[in-house]
Amino acid sequence: MKPTDPSDPAEPKTAAGGGEGSTGAATVRGRAPATDELFTIPEPVGVPRSPHSLEPNPVDATAPKQSEASDATKSGKSPALANTERPPNNTVRGIPVEDGEPPSLPSYRVGELLGRGGMGEVVLADDLEIGRKVAIKRLRGDVTSEALVARFLREAKIQAVLDHPAIVPVHEVGRDSAGRPFFTMKRLQGTTLSEVIKTKSETRARMLRALADVCLAIELAHSRGFIHRDLKPSNIMLGEYGEVYVIDWGLARHYATGVDGEPDPGFVPDTGSLGGETQVGVVMGTPGYMSPEQVRGETVGPPTDVYALGVVLYEILTRRNLHPRGGDAALVSTLAGGNLSPAAAAPDRAVPPELDRLCVAALAFDAERRPTARALADGVQKYLDGDRDLERRRVLATELLVTARADLESDDPARRGSAIKAASRALALDPESEEAGALVAKMMLEPPKVMPPELAQRLDDIDVSQGSTQGKRASMSLAAYFLFLPIAIWMGVRDWGAVVMVFALVLTAIGTSLGRAKWPRLPMVIALVVNTALLMALGRLTSPLVIVPTLAVGAGILFGMFPQLLHRPVVVLGACLSSTLVPMALELAGVWSNTWQITDGQLVIDPGALDFSGAGAKVFLIGITAATAIVFPLFVRSLAIAQRAARRQLEIQAWHFQHLIPEARA
Q1: Average pLDDT by consecutive 10-residue portion of the chain (666 residues)?
Q2: Residue 473: is it exposed, middle or buried by C-beta count within 10 angstroms (0-12/13-18/19+)?
Q3: Are residues 221 and 295 in the same domain?
Q4: In terms of domains, do 510 and 637 share one?
Q5: Where are the beta strands (DSSP E) in 559-645?
Q6: Which domain holds residue 404?
Q7: Of 320, 265, 315, the residue nearest 293 (C-alpha)
């Protein structure tokens, strides 16, 4: 984080920890500036009176004694001034100073000017006694009002008594050689929140963490009876190493008492003087961050600071101003109220609902309805910790469930996808919702009556892929036919045309299976027709009653399992019957020569293409029978293994899913 240029007049407090400038304040018309000095502030702990302090020397004859301080109080002067009376201009700690000698700060080497406000200025300095950099805030030379001096000193004492990591510590209070009061404090380096919001140099989470720290610091001030009255992004400093500071307590006051001990009556701003630095005699606050009761001139208290914190939260969430800057518009907008929801104002910023509600509560027009600063801090911290607004999420979940049920009950397959999305989002928003869990489970575990087009296409792709795998297995099974070619030649061939036709059809069947493996969308009917023709041709080698019926049954089982033919059983059964019955019918009709006949009660097989008179016939029949008994079971087994794996995978997924939903846990 790059430190802001301390010479920038728009951010006079950036590197110093508390300039006097409050941008955009309004002057008070028709009344004297409020002093707020007549309440007692306890002597701050940790504000030393070092030997090098510029306080009047207590043994100096020219310094006011304790009784004199009391007399000053009785005469109407502020108790805050009782121990900080201006010494004679020509003495410092009782030592004469020549006229014209510039004011000096013993123990400090003053450096560059960091910022200048309506009545004070902040300079960088070296603490020569301790050896550290400090920021010194002192009154400007042209400020002589005792009321303003009291206010200045009160700022130092308020910062000193509010011991909090987010409040800049005060090291010392004193007067310079010219009698001007000053106080030293920690030197800050970093960037104001206003600059961070403008440049988008930090994440939302980083700014929210800073705001939570600021809220707790303000809560501490409220617990001690003080209000800041000028909270805004330019008065919040983000350090280079994660530090956060609330700066510029120059307008802070004790809200329980006011001028002359009366309740603070508030201030009526002059809207004709709005801009630049805070001027002497101005309203306590900055238009655009002032609460409605401030603008109306009513009594102000802790809710006023909470309103300003709400404006800051609004700017963090939206990165835009809640109220217009400067002129009448800021005050008119503040008094107008209305819908102050950051989510409504910036829908593109994805404002979390819990932060939106928290911001709206802090900006409540009625001061009594605003949360405390601590409640605001707790709400922001809960969001950062991941503790979301459950009630709001349940409302959103209910709305999504209504949408999901409407899409599901429409029986429109195209809307089933949106129904699942809505129901799953409802379950994510409210994980304990049994209704959401039951609806999601129903849609996940029960198939729709009509498949949505997208899902139907994906299932079709799965069927095609399965058909490709089965085609590869079928080609390997068909290749087994070639094992019997040498045996057929050994037996003796009567009709070479029939033998050549059989093995040509075997090659065609293998080619068809491999083609389906490469082009899965080829019609399965082609392979079924080729297989049927192959079985018919095989019947000419042996007989339609030998081997062919067994092969036809096996082929029917295999083809019946292909996804493309699952819903066409008539075609598969017709092909299986045709492979046996058609050759028999052709033989009975005399179209083909008979390969079987019944003589004297005996079935006589007389194959026309092969010679079954020798020993080779027995080897052929035993071999082809054994091959059929081995190949088909292995093929069916491979399909069964694949189906079992698929079923198990579905069941495992369903089991895990059921344990994700509330109904399953119950």
Answers
A1: 37 39 34 34 37 35 33 35 39 35 72 83 91 90 83 88 92 86 90 92 91 96 93 93 91 67 35 35 75 90 96 95 84 88 89 91 95 96 76 81 86 80 85 82 75 74 68 63 71 81 84 75 81 85 82 80 79 88 88 84 80 76 78 78 83 73 48
A2: middle
A3: yes
A4: yes
A5: 596-599, 602-605
A6: 391-445
A7: 265
